[in-house]
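Quick one, tokens below. Sequence please?
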């Protein structure tokens, strides 16, 4: 990641200490479900809450390490307070758990009280099949401990979309 290389150069040249945080699939309330780069969770929530089939590229077995926005906030605060000897390195910010897209739709349906089936379309060429973060360094060095696993994060996010449906669709 080029930003990490720049941080290393600035540390060597100017003595600027940095901490890099690599965020894995952050989601939460107020995330825009529109636009060309919309994340899968707000897209799926919008579909499910409106009774439409969420579109899955492939068979739904692709998996990601999703993390709720409150976990990312926690990691940022811990990084701010990190001792100087923990600077000039990179930490993964995630939950350390894989959830495939079929499981994601199942969790969302259960939380929303729906039974919407996904629509499967052709797999996107070059899409990464599985992504799982190693968060052990974040845990051991920064004291990071994800407090909101996928289902709790989905509950809060779905609740927000339900309570703010008009505002979410106006984005």
């Amino acid at each position: 990641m080029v930003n990490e290389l720049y941080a290393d150069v600035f540390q060597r040249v100017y003595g600027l200490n940095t901490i890099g945080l690599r965020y894995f699939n952050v989601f939460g309330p107020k995330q825009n479900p529109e636009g060309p780069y919309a994340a899968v969770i707000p897209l799926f929530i919008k579909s499910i809450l409106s009774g439409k089939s969420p579109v899955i590229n492939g068979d739904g077995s692709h998996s990601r390490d999703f993390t709720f926005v409150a976990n990312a906030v926690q990691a940022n605060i811990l990084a701010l307070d990190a001792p100087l000897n923990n600077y000039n390195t990179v930490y993964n910010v995630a939950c350390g758990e894989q959830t495939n897209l079929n499981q994601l739709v199942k969790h969302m349906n259960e939380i929303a009280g729906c039974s919407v089936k996904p629509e499967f379309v052709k797999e996107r060429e070059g899409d990464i099949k599985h992504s799982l973060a190693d968060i052990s360094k974040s845990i051991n060095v920064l004291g990071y401990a994800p407090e909101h696993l996928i289902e709790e994060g989905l509950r809060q996010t779905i609740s927000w979309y339900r309570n703010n449906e008009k505002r979410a669709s106006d984005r």
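Residues 150-163 form the longest helix (14 residues). The longest strand covers residues 19-23.
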